[in-house]
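Worked problem 6 (solution included).
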Amino acid sequence: MSTVAHNKLRKRHFVSTALTAIGIAIALIGLGVYICRRLENFFELQASSRVVGLLTEAISSTPDADGSLTIDNKEYIGIIELPSLNLTLPVLASCEGDNLEKGICLYSSNGNYVIGGHNRDSQFGPIYDLKINDKLIFYDIHSNKKEYTLAKTEILLPEDVEKFTTNEYGITLFTCYWDNHQRYVLRFN
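Solution. The predicted structure is:
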């Protein structure tokens, strides 16, 4: 084999090895991101579960509380339960500060509740699996329990704030749509 042919073969082997190493590195980074995300969701769900327990206890022991209850320096207005998803989440009193990073929160209440959350497993990621007529149960801090039924889903733009907040539905849930440029909105009566 000539020196030129040998050098070409070595160059091909080097390129092949380099591309394989880059592919493995990308796969490992992707796996690391996936594992971190799953762990983050797990810990967020554990924290939500803990807060739901504390809220349930506080609601039953102080049913005449004001408009919210404070747990871990965060104000909550109640709990939502989505039985078909086996999902129960505490509802923060506002979306101010880092509340949306901590959990789902009340975006507005003009005679109805508009509740926002991130599109991740520990918040509203699972709501894409809800079907028309699925139930939502809302427990407020006054020990009131109200059941709602999913009536409609829609996709809105983030700037359609009035469409989010002005409606005839009892509860509206929303999260980012898959493309992150729209909002997935669920209307409950």
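Discussion: The domain at 44-188 is CATH 2.40.260.10 (Sortase; Chain: A;).
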